[in-house]
Amino acid sequence: xxxxxxxxxxxxxxxxxQAFTFNMGLNFGAILENEHALKQxxxxxxxxxxxxxxxxxxxxxxxxxxxxxxxxGESLIRVMETTPQGVLVFFSSYSQMDELVEVWKKTKxxxxxxxxxxxxxxxxxxxxxxxPRAKEQLAxxxxxxxxxxSEPHGAALLAVCRGKVSEGIDFCDAESRAVIIVGIPYPPIxxxxxxxxKMYLDDLMGRNDLTNERQSSRDWYQMEAFRAVNQxxxxxxxxxxxxxxxxxxxxxxxxxxPEMFPKWLRNTISRCDSNNCALKTARFxxxxxxxxxxxxxxxxxxxxxxxxxxxxxxxxxxxxxxxDITDITLEDMFSPANMxxxxxxxxxxxxxxxxxxxxxxxxxxxxxDELKVKKWEQENDSQTNVSSSSDLNKRKYKAExxxxxSGQHEVSGSEPPKKKKMVLLTRETLPEKYQNALNIxxxxxxxxxxxxxxxxxxxxxxxxxxxxxxxxxxxxxLHQIFIPDRPDLFISCSNILRSEDKMxxxxxxxxxKINY
Length: 516
Known about the structure:
By secondary structure, the protein is α/β, with parallel strands linked by helices. Helix content is 41%, strand content 8%. It is elongated and about 100 Å long.
């Protein structure tokens, strides 16, 4: 395409294309509207113009006419009876859908009192699901619908044009064998935005400006309605092997210009009454009986595969995100995003894999700095002036104050790393095994720990960090985890506590004579 710098590809459901180009406000040099990729589109489109009692005009004034409501209900039942698997039914608005459903639940199909209502007959024909107004309930409704599609009689989903179902959700194969649209979904005529838009277009039409393309408010209003119709129609054909029927229940569709519909659909449209529509629909699906049978088995396999995948994902993921400790370190445990904790937790077994993390969201009070100090002292032992081993012990374990100067390093050269001060409220020195335990890096605490203990360990540290748990409770919980198997790690856990609680933790350990 020589000389072409920009090409805009648009969906066929954006018809009518004239309204689209006008609203874009751009001067397109050329517009190409193609046929469907398939030579023969496997779609049957029926405009139902009449019911048992007369013409089907779904205007606002006729919406509560009992004959119109009965004819629409009967037309739906006839199509549902002849359509296998899933049926999507779209209404102009939630109010229209609610009003019709309410009347169908009360109105008998026949003259006798013993006959069933329209709604009861629909529920016998298909498993009915209704699109909710609240988006939080949509997942449950769709699940009900997809489960019903796999049942022998299939299912029907009642929804609204411009709603959550008509645009953006993919209904493939068995889930959309028929798309039925009741009425024409014109925008609310008294809506403020609609009123202003029509006023704006009327003002443009009244000007004597022949240089720019103009659009009447009436044309815009009609095109907006058909754009919503075409979006809903697009649910019926999702790939080259898909097939289905489109049923437009309103006489006014018969007088619409062909340009209002997508180009690929125009050659499939025919006009008929409700009886002929049911006969044509039955014939259409009878000719594709073998495809439907294959589709049923494939759909059941697809559902089973989806359920299996869901169960696998669910079993691999923790029931509560706060319980997920895969690839977690002590610093990650204390991340501000993981502060809330439930003390009683249901633990699901799962494989745990630990890797080192470079996270530095929160700096734990560990013994890593003390180990660096000790390593520095060993490397600079010849330069360190220490009067006696007693003074060394005092420097390590004696209570220090800012003005205390005994045991200070007399060092030439580099300064030692800043020490992590450890305050014990006693002059006694710790046993050698305790000191060895305190030298264990905190990164070693969870190595070799069972899954249940890992969960309990994480929960304990989170509770302590969130200040919902005192050190005494931490002591009891960690005691159950490490004693009697690993008392050295139990002592080392004091390094992750705040300094004032660390001293109390070690003193209590000494009092309980925890030895190993």
